[in-house]
């Protein structure tokens, strides 16, 4: 069993929360300190661009059950430096926090274009401010046609705004592939989304929201980019990283489920070293937009025509070699993943 007496977790998102829970579940009963620069307890980030923005009366969709890890939570406090030789995390209030084990779970933030009045959506505070603005029904320009940009556009449309979206190519084509891109874009156009190519003159709008990728929160580590870790999430002796901030050997996977699965692996490796299981990437994500609920597992973007496994029209279960996608089709995630494995053979 490990000899750690004090573990510090930096980042109070889903990766930090899961790492703290996993440490406890694996039997760690030493001191646990969680440092998070947002003033809120951990919440569901995916809800911010979905129900929270869209549903006028629902201010709870992002709320997670209260944490059970019993860590000392330093909220509204930012880590600004790391002294790995002396095993100290430097905080923005001047404190130097000693650790035996460190979990880096500081996530990422939106890449900004520097457009006048630009808004982005990453945090609960971003979402609450945007929600208040959208309630006044401004005209909205969304720059970026990935899943986040499309979700924001969809939620603004649902709230009664006139919405234009610009993207370098067809929205979602880079993430999901041409078949699903066309499927979703047809639904978006039918609901009134205006789509312009990125090189078209930018139309005037009351609100400009960009969703054009992200930047890793690793300046406090002296890094430029994600933390390169091994298959167990280890970066340096006594230090692991997981979630959006981490680049595993299989690459970066900035998705909710990956953040959970990686932080379980990383926390176990902090305690058990090589005896802990390695991370096995099995990408899964979901999105809700323009009346479509999409669950996607496996290797995307998917090219070529899919096999229709079941369903028809707007409610189908689709399969490509190595990928499976449910559109408005109820299927448990493990079954969707199994379909992926079968399809990959
Ligand atoms: C609006 C939105 C919708 C999304 N929808 C989906 C979806 O539908 N499906 C899906 O699979 N994924 C979705 N994602 C992605 C998913 O939310 C992320 O992959 C996941 O939240 C990553 O968790 P994390 O804990 O690694 O990072 P984060 O959630 O970013 O948490 C990191 C935390 O660390 C804090 N922090 C940063 N630097 C410091 C520091 N120096 N000191 C202290 N604290 C620090 C941050 O403020 C943040 O609170 C969405 C993301 C967004 C923004």
Describe the 3D structure.
This protein is α/β, with parallel strands linked by helices and 345 residues long. The chain folds into 3 domains: 6-109 and 213-275, FAD/NAD(P)-binding domain (3-Layer(bba) Sandwich), CATH 3.50.50.60; 112-210, FAD/NAD(P)-binding domain (3-Layer(bba) Sandwich); 291-339, no CATH class. It is 25% helix and 28% strand. It has helices at residues 14-25, 51-54, 124-134, 147-158, 173-176, 178-190, 256-272, 333-344; strands spanning 6-10, 31-36, 72-75, 79-83, 88-91, 96-98, 101-104, 108-110, 118-119, 140-143, 163-167, 194-197, 207-210, 214-216, 227-228, 234-236, 239-241, 246-247, 284-289, 292-298, 307-312, 315-320, 323-327. A 6-stranded mixed sheet has the order 3-2-1-7-17-16, covered by helices on one side. A 5-stranded parallel sheet has the order 9-13-10-11-12. Strand 1, helix 1 (14-25) and strand 2 form a beta-alpha-beta unit. The longest helix has 17 residues, at 256-272. It starts with 5 loop residues before the first strand and ends with a helix. Residues 10-16, 35-38, 45-46, 48-49, 78-79, 105-108, 121-122, 148, 217, 220, 243-245, 254-257, 259, 285-287 line the site of flavin-adenine dinucleotide.
